[in-house]
């Protein structure tokens, strides 16, 4: 097998890293939010995140002081890759829906709208 | 099992009451504004909100120069609580099901979306399971392949 696949396999071999991926399957999250349920110091979580990044499974985006993580759309091969697309499809849709209903709520709260 | 039956589940608390969320799920103009991944443009072709009624829309992804059509039929309609419809992607033979449930929490709404009955075109030897199972199985696949 090639090195990429080795890196993916190594990344997935750890239960904490799988927990991080499961959390991210539900949507983009900060490093802090990912760390919260893990009962682990932040530096340890950062190490795990770096392993996932190197394996091409997770992408990091820095927004202000916060680091946001999301699943890399092309990180997984075959079936799992395809699953990621649908997870992303619904996750993005739900985020967009949240914005739409927030707009509706604020307009409904304003009698001049 | 001869084919994979997989599912994707997501769960969000949205900042509006169930009546508002339900409206966003069932009003064509509002639906177009949120359905589809980031950067996509969705156009509703039909939204016949009754049991057996047809839902059809197209999702365009300009960045990827891609467009696909999706249609389905409403199977369960419980205003402000639950919406179930089938899901068929144009050019694909496999019908899956989307279940949306709404639950009032505080000033907001917990929306759960379960997309099940998904068939992976590239993986026909697996049994059913969610994301967790997918990860577990991927490990096995990789270990075997290695």
SS elements, strand count of chain B: 7
End-to-end separation of chain A in angstroms reads 61 Å
The secondary structure category of chain A is alpha+beta
Q: Mean pLDDT of chain B, as a whole number?
A: 81
Task: Give the H and E element order of chain B.
Answer: EHHEEEEEEH
Helix content of chain B: 10-25%
Strand order of the largest sheet of chain B: 1-7-6-5-4-3-2
H-E order of chain A = HHEHHEEH
Helix content of chain A: 55-70%
Specify the number of helices of chain B.
3
Spatial extent as radius of gyration of chain A: 17 Å
N-C termini distance of chain B: 25 Å
The count of β-strands of chain A is 3
Supply Rg of chain B.
Answer: 17 Å
Largest beta sheet of chain A: what is the strand line-up? 1-3-2
**Main β-sheet of chain B, in a few words?**
7 strands, antiparallel
Note poorly predicted spans of chain B. Answer: 121-135, 137-146
Shape of chain A: elongated
* Most extensive interface: A-B, 40 and 46 residues
Query: How large is the share of residues in beta strands of chain B?
Result: over 45%
Quaternary state reads heterodimer
List the defining traits of the structure above.
heterodimer, A: 113 residues, alpha+beta, three-stranded antiparallel beta sheet, 5 helices, 12% strand, B: 146 residues, seven-stranded antiparallel beta sheet, 3 helices, 45% strand, disordered C terminus
